[in-house]
Amino acid sequence: MQEAKIQRNPGSITLTLTDACNLRCSYCYEHHKSTNRMSFETARDILDRELVNTDMESLTIDFFGGEPFLEFPTMKRICEYVWSRDWDVEYKFFVSTNGTLVHGEVRDWLAGHRESFWVGLSYDGTPAMNNLNRDRSSDEIDLPFFASNWPTQGIKMTVSRETLPNLAEGVRFLHEQGFSVNCNLAYGPDWDSGHWNDVLQSQLMELIDFYVENPHIKPCSMLSMEIPYVAVADRLEYTKWCGAGTNMKVYSPDGTCYPCHFFEPMAVGKEMAERSLTIDFANAAQLKDRDCDGCILMPICPTCYGSNFAATGDITKKDRDLCALTKTMAMANSYLWYRLLDRYDDDELGINRERRKLLTDGIVAIQDGFTNDFKTLG
């Protein structure tokens, strides 16, 4: 079994090619869409500057939206410009897409450049789940095309309140299509209910049974928390969860640079977006939510500074409604690894003796920190 490792954001330059989208996803955080779009000249000037002056060892040039393939001619022209020149920094292109416009010329171009241009698809489980969340778009998306051309690129699955009851079914379906699965609860909906905690727990238990029977499949991100860190939480310094405002730069269509896409005017409006430009992201200690002091899950608790900012105006203040759900996920991770370590040897799990010890310590710390019986959590 291949273990998931904590993914650290590489140096990245995001070009928001358009504030427009062809879908109306139920949970979308981009509340201020418009017809704004980035010109080739603006993109060229940004990349001329960033590819020369960066202090990163490598860069990802990320196309974003709205739906970036609405501006495919500009995207293609940018790539051809960058490929035509020599740069001192290693780079790759990446695009996040809903997949509905990847047909015909777009599809052929992507297939021809799949070694140098990576594509991340957002798709929310089964076709029925995706239709529920993402504007009945499933019939327009060619899942096998994405799985065959970028087999190591995980699919992005957002879980809404409407699709949470089918979480396990959706994750299994995407694994069957050949994808690893990066799934998260949607930011924005009201999760303040014991009901949602019970539903999440039931779905994760279903997934645990699936992964125990299929140890060769990499667990979805909800069940890939780095639980050994919990055992040493009191000895770890707080570190930033992502590259927002430091090794991540996001350029809106007019060329203004924001800490991440969640801070753009398209997401939070012009006034809040301007305020985000004054935030100092360099001092990690100041980004810590002091209400979380003493919580053993702090080293592995997902933190989105942008969603915090959109909800509370403060990048450090987490959504308290998600606390119980995060604890449920941590407990599920500990239970999954308890069962895996009990059933399989190190070679079968792809770990060594030291890693087994770290995982065991993490399991004990989580179980002692919350409850000794996962089934009664919540």
Quick overview:
This protein has 378 residues and is an alpha/beta fold. The protein is built from 14 helices and 8 strands.
The profile of the biggest β sheet is: 6 strands, mixed
Q: How many individual helices?
A: 14
User: Which consecutive residue ranges, at least 5 long each, have pLDDT under 50?
Assistant: 1-9, 372-378
Helix content: 25-40%
Average pLDDT score: 92
Tell me, what's the shape? globular
Radius of gyration (Å): 21 Å
Major sheet: arrangement of strands: 4-3-2-1-7-8
Number of strands: 8
- Structural class by secondary-structure content: alpha/beta
How far the N terminus sits from the C terminus, by CA atoms, comes to 30 Å
Q: What is the quaternary state of this protein?
A: single chain
Order of helices and strands: EHEHEHEHHEHEHHEEHHHHHH
Bin the strand percentage: 5-15%
What does this molecule look like?
The protein has a domain at 201-241 and 284-378. The chain is 39% helix and 11% strand. It starts with 10 loop residues before the first strand and ends in a 9-residue tail after the last helix. Strands 4-3-2-1-7-8 form a six-stranded mixed β-sheet, with helices on one face. It has helices at 40-53, 72-83, 104-112, 127-133, 143-149, 167-176, 194-213, 228-231, 265-268, 270-276, 305-312, 321-343, 346-349, 353-369, and strands spanning 11-16, 58-64, 90-97, 117-121, 155-159, 181-185, 248-251, 257-258. With 378 residues, it is of the alpha/beta class.
